[in-house]
Amino acid sequence: MQQYKFNGDYKLRKIFNRELINLVHTSDMDLVVAIPVSHHTMMTRGFNQVASLLEGVELTEALQVKVTKKMQQSHFNRRGRMKREQPFSIIDEKIIEGQSILLVDDVYTTGNTLHHAADLLLAHGADSVKSISLAR
Question: Which residue in 12, 41, 99, 106 has its CB near the most CB atoms, within 10 A?
């Protein structure tokens, strides 16, 4: 994951792409939402590591990162991660109202990222939210 995510070895996404897509297709959810990255991360990394793992899946852009330069979670310990404020905002709640949503993240460490995202989606009208991650 380090090589793919932080060292930019983009071709490594293909190792897990097919299996992750099969899992998404069997989820029977209305929308698939990848955890977003900040504008800063997109500019420096050049790709959203979660969206790239889902290449070939129709993704819904329902969330965005509120801050322009988000501190990488890998710099926080567990306590620090759990104290993080809501990092996301909704792009357009009309697209999520009444929908069942599958949230996808690359790594589940504390679950706080998925928790924040799911809370926000449910608070803005999503009918249900399930999540999957590639690694724990």
Answer: 106
